[in-house]
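Support request, please re-run this one:
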Amino acid sequence: MQLKIWSAETGQCAATLIGHTAGILQTAIVGRGKNIVSCSRDGSAKLWDCGTQKCIHTFTPECGVLNTCHVGIPDNGISLGTPDGCHTPEPGESFTEGKMLLLGCENYDFVGYELCSRSNDTT
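Re-run finished. Output below.
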């Protein structure tokens, strides 16, 4: 399956992201739009570099089909650990520090990841 990003300014296709094996149900913008997250019926969520049109990381929670994804800054009740847990950002990765990725599964479960470290050990 492919995800196309269209330019609002020109009306042209600015990027085509290929990698999911089933329908893409939702996307979420990370930071200023250099990166996005997509979630799919294939059970995965992908962090993309829109500039290179490459997948930076694939999240595969064990809950089956993913229906929704959201990227945001968690409130004070959720600990994302320390910045030391963050990996060196991949080329093309930006604005993932301090962000949480929340994935909603078809079985009504939710799975949270600290986006920078790729960890789901959030509390």
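The chain has no helices and nine strands. Strands lie at 2-6, 13-18, 24-30, 35-40, 45-49, 54-59, 66-72, 100-105, 110-114.
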